[in-house]
Design brief:
With about 220 residues, this protein is α/β, with parallel strands linked by helices. Helices cover about 35% and strands about 15% of the residues.
């Protein structure tokens, strides 16, 4: 690091194979809009989900172009909905267990797993570290950094519930991807942004993704 240069401390964002890639896109856009740096890990399973939900590929060799096109799309699939600058994103291959986030000495503010599949939840809870996403999450926990796990599955069986309790006991924030309606949602993007906003609330990152509750009944039914 050069004299006078500030050390980069990114948020690590892990995208697992659960349905809900629009949640990840919203979180990434909001982090970048807040001036945060991002280290991105996209699991192999999530690339299949992204292709299924959006028709878009995510390739290690072309991640920059693929990410820009993905983040430009709205939750309804419409291209060119958002204008996003991704210069502050660093991508790590999910199979690269020698990557920066695999070590506790690598500086980061914490990690957000959005969405988190039940397989991902189990792997992190059991400390399997079968790929970089799971390894980075384990490192985040052992270093006492913020870990937010946005689990996206229903119904939840007893085994998964026990894994989620283990993560809570380890210090993670378990955040089900459950949209609320009091914010006055009128579009699918509003519901997606609500969940993304709650993820960022848990991380302590400022955003303007949804209308907050102000103690006044009927506020969500009024146009904003």
């Amino acid at each position: 690091m050069k004299p006078g240069q500030t050390q980069r401390r990114p948020w690590i964002v892990g995208v697992s194979g659960a349905s809900g890639t629009p949640y990840a896109a919203s979180v990434l856009r909001a982090l970048l809009a807040a001036g945060e740096s991002v280290d991105l890990v996209v699991s192999r399973a999530s690339r299949l989900t992204l292709l299924d939900e959006t028709g878009l590929p995510f390739r290690d060799a072309h991640w920059h172009d693929d990410l820009r096109e993905w983040l430009a799309r709205g939750a309804d699939g419409k291209p060119g909905t958002f204008d996003v600058r991704i210069e502050d994103v660093r991508h790590w291959s999910a199979g690269d267990l020698a990557a920066g986030p695999s070590s506790g000495s690598y500086p980061s503010k914490g990690m957000l797993i959005v969405p988190a599949s039940t397989a991902c939840v189990a792997g992190v809870a059991l400390g399997l570290s079968k790929d970089l996403l799971q390894r980075a999450a384990s490192v985040t926990l052992k270093e006492g950094r913020k870990l937010v796990v946005a689990v996206r599955e229903t119904p939840l069986n007893g085994q998964t519930l026990r894994h989620l309790v283990s993560l809570d006991d380890a210090g993670a924030t378990v955040l089900p991807a459950s949209p609320a309606f009091y914010a006055g949602a009128t579009h699918i993007q509003d519901l997606v942004d609500f969940v993304a906003g709650r993820v960022l609330d848990a991380a302590g990152v400022e955003h303007e993704l949804y209308r907050r509750w102000e103690g006044e009944l009927g506020g969500g039914s009024r146009a904003t």
